[in-house]
């Protein structure tokens, strides 16, 4: 038996992100905003990005002095090395990267144009690789870092009318395993979170114009309700923290039980 549990241990400091800096793409709204909020609540600092300045400004006002923003479009891949360089020079070393920015398109597969397909894959997959590579170079040199991809249960199930989205998220899941394997020797962990139905603008749009879609979604969800963005935020805090120091290469479903299957 080890010595008595100390006061520090009682305060769960193993989940603390004190002294850590996180870069969160798409952090001005939806799931990304709550990931930022949970990381700040856990003691960390955040830099959030997005294409529009106003939501980023509003979000940082709410998050307080430990949050700053950079206007950045992740699809402009040539800008991503510079983004990382700028943050590392002006704010500090990036300890945690959350690849959250993502877009969806709800269309029957045969109506999806090449341009549609490329746009989704470019945002949800290609840019994720470029930004991850830029951050990982720095993290590997410091022998420490946590990279988190926001995937989707659409990577696992045949959800109709999201062919490009599902393809992009499945590919991200594959990338997680390879990068986790390549980076683990240098103290950098790579994991994914696979959200189920979460209450955000994106899921509202996906449910719109199809009254039966919500009922079908709930039939697939044993817990019988949508999740909240902060449910993803706390999972991200766990994966970024010391509590997950032996966790790499996994995809954590946060989905009210969708992944139990039927
Ligand atoms: P939202 O549409 O509510 O938010 C998306 C965020 O990403 C916005 O802040 C947007 O800001 C930003 N964004 C979009 N494109 C870009 C870009 N090219 N460059 C930089 N930022 C961008 O979506 P959610 O919060 O619902 O989704 C967040 C993540 O969670 C996505 O990866 C999504 O696939 C995933 N997910 C969501 C689920 C859900 O039920 N909501 C379920 C499963 C996965 P701006 O427009 O200003 O650029």
Automatic annotation (TrEMBL):
Gene Ontology molecular functions: oxidoreductase activity, acting on the CH-OH group of donors, NAD or NADP as acceptor
- InterPro entries in the record: KR_dom (IPR057326), NAD(P)-bd_dom_sf (IPR036291), Sc_DH/Rdtase_CS (IPR020904), SDR_fam (IPR002347)
Q: Domain of life here?
A: Bacteria
Set out the biological process GO terms recorded for this chain's protein.
Answer: fatty acid elongation
Question: SMART domains given for it?
Answer: PKS_KR (SM00822)
Domain Ketoreductase, first and last residues per copy: 20-196
**Family statement:** Belongs to the short-chain dehydrogenases/reductases (SDR) family.
What is the name of this protein?
A: SDR family oxidoreductase
Native species:
Spirosoma profusum
């Amino acid at each position: 038996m080890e010595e008595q549990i100390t006061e520090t241990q009682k305060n769960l400091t193993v989940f603390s992100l004190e002294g850590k800096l996180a870069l969160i793409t798409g952090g001005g709204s939806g799931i990304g905003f709550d990931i930022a909020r949970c990381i700040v609540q856990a003691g960390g600092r955040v830099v959030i990005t997005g294409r529009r300045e106003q939501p980023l400004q509003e979000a940082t006002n709410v998050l307080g002095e430990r949050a700053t923003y950079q206007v950045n479009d992740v699809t402009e891949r040539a800008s991503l090395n510079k983004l990382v360089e700028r943050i590392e020079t002006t704010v500090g070393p990036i300890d945690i990267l959350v690849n959250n920015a993502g877009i969806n398109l709800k269309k029957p597969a045969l109506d999806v144009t090449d341009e549609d397909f490329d746009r989704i894959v470019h945002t949800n997959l290609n840019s994720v690789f470029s930004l991850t590579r830029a951050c990982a170079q720095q993290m590997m040199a410091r022998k420490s870092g946590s990279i988190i991809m926001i995937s989707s249960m659409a990577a696992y199930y045949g959800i109709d009318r999201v062919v490009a989205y599902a393809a992009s998220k499945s590919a991200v899941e594959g990338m997680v395993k390879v990068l986790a394997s390549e980076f683990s020797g240098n103290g950098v962990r790579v994991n994914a979170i696979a959200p189920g139905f979460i209450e955000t603008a994106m899921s509202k749009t996906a449910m719109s114009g199809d009254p039966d879609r919500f009922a079908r979604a709930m039939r697939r969800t044993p817990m019988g309700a949508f999740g909240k963005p902060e449910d993803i935020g706390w999972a991200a805090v766990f994966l970024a923290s010391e509590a997950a120091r032996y966790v790499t290469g996994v995809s954590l479903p946060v989905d009210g039980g969708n992944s139990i299957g039927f």
